[in-house]
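Renewal narrative, Specific Aim 1. Our central claim is that a sequence can be written position by position from structural information alone. The example that follows is taken directly from our test logs and has not been curated for this report. It begins with the structure tokens describing the chain, in the order in which they were read.
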């Protein structure tokens, strides 16, 4: 993964830490994953992107999440640091790819996503085994996609 350096040549940790922890939300206790999910819902609701823009932003978010969580994980020496919550943001964002972010949908999506994210039923748990940032992020992305499908089924 690319390293980021300041003008003085010292490693600049601000960018990847800010992104991986969603600007410090991951350091809040208790339940940083739940707080990260709430941040993701706020992002979904505030942006309300449609069509290809929604898909493009989701892809960009996944790439940023994998990169920042990979670097954070390597620097901290932890496989899946609790402070990294951008994976929850990316996951809950995926829940709303095909579902409109109305208040009721956001509430239902939150509970479905958190349940799947914590329980990690098949096939979600398989993705957690991937190395580095891929394992940190892709299990949440798959949980989000499954949550979105379940939510879509419930509201139709």
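The sequence written for that structure reads:
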């Amino acid at each position: 993964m690319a390293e980021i350096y300041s003008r003085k040549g010292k490693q600049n940790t601000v960018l990847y830490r800010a992104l991986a922890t969603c600007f410090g939300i991951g350091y809040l206790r208790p339940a940083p994953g739940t707080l990260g999910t709430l941040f993701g819902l706020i992002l979904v609701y505030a942006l309300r992107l449609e069509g290809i823009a929604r898909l493009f932003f989701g892809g960009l978010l996944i790439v940023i999440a994998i990169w920042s969580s990979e670097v954070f994980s390597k620097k901290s020496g932890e496989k899946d640091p609790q402070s990294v919550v951008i994976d929850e943001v990316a996951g809950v964002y995926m829940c709303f790819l095909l579902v409109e972010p109305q208040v009721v949908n956001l509430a239902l999506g939150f509970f479905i996503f958190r349940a799947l994210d914590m329980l990690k039923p098949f096939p979600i748990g398989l993705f957690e085994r991937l190395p580095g940032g891929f394992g940190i992020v892709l299990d949440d992305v798959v949980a989000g996609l499954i949550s979105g499908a379940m939510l879509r089924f419930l509201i139709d």
